[in-house]
Design a protein that fits this description.
The chain has three helices and four strands, in the order αββααββ. Helices cover 21% and strands 13% of the residues. The N and C termini lie far apart (65 Å).
């Protein structure tokens, strides 16, 4: 273990101490979290502005798949990622109407509603139907009810 590895270990330990009780800590003598309390995860990321490691090819030499790491280590930092979930029984958030439905009503809409309509993703009017013919099939012009293979 070099200086960089021991520094990395110290920084990780400091981060685990700072978020004690929120992050899973596998060190001996630290309490484990209940399943429902595991919503934070500590991950190592490349530090902003640091040079990313170069891609290497597998070497398969000396019984190893990957070559030995270079002496240059990438600067990294620790990030706490918070995840959460919404209860299935929770009421869905009120969505603004689709633009086509709002236009049909002919009513004046508030500017906030217009902005919400513009920001929402497009949704289909109805579910997409499966294709009734294959990719290399076509309908005969004189008999559209007949499907023939197309070469």
């Amino acid at each position: 273990m070099g200086k960089a590895s021991s520094r990395k270990t110290r920084v990780r330990a400091t981060t685990l101490d700072a978020y004690a009780g929120r992050v899973e800590d596998e060190r001996p003598g630290h309490a484990t979290l209940a399943v429902e309390d595991r919503y934070c995860q500590l991950t190592e990321v490349v530090a902003p502005g640091a040079r990313r490691p170069a891609a290497v090819r597998p070497s398969y030499a000396d019984g190893r798949r990957w070559p030995k790491p270079s002496a240059h280590e990438t600067r990294t930092s620790w990030r706490v990622m918070v995840s959460y979930w919404r209860l299935a029984s929770a009421a869905p958030a009120a969505e603004p109407p689709q633009a086509r439905k709002a236009r049909r009503t002919g009513a004046e809409l508030a500017p906030e509603t217009l902005q919400a309509i513009a920001r929402q993703p497009l949704r289909p009017v109805e579910p997409q139907r499966p294709l009734d013919i294959g990719l290399f099939e076509t309908r005969l012009p004189e008999s559209p009810h007949i499907v023939v293979p197309d070469e």
